[in-house]
Prior knowledge:
Helices cover 44% and strands 10% of the residues. The protein is built from eight helices and four strands.
Amino acid sequence: MSAHLDRLLFAQGGMCFFCRNPLPKADASVEHLVASSNGGANADDNCVACCRALNQLLGSKSIKEKLQIVLNQRGNFKCPAHLATPPKPPAPGLADTGNSPSVSAPKPAAAKVPSATQERLELVLADLKKRGASRPRKTSTLTSTIKALIKQHRQENLSDADLNGLIGELQRQGKVTISEGKVTYKVG
Length: 188
Ligand SMILES: [Zn+2]
């Protein structure tokens, strides 16, 4: 089961399937979308890794009820654990560079950030902080904002792959959450 959880977490980029918060293995559990008690398989295509508290809430509800719960939170899905307590502050040093390994969160093996990406990330994060409430709310605006910013400060034309990598890294670090084309931020 533990290897199963590892595999699911890796495939999900270390994030909860539902709320997309960074998910340390200690807080994670395997959720069977169709519950085992309802005949759900133990195979990967019926399983996701999610916050333990949510898994307990979903229990052996029918897939319809589970979807209802998720849809009720649509746009800004919060797992119960994240509703009850404020998110844990980032590990010391993590907020500075985003490059030091977090104490608790398991990282995929390929998580090392190349320095050019790191510099772009810092640029983007500094800009997002500065923007405060006027941060882009749509994915399309976020991508064009990042492109323009990198061009302006680094004279680089970001490829789509680089851009996606950058946004992926922001999500992996929990700075940016994208749900249905809407963007929310935790950049401090
Ligand atoms: Zn969650």
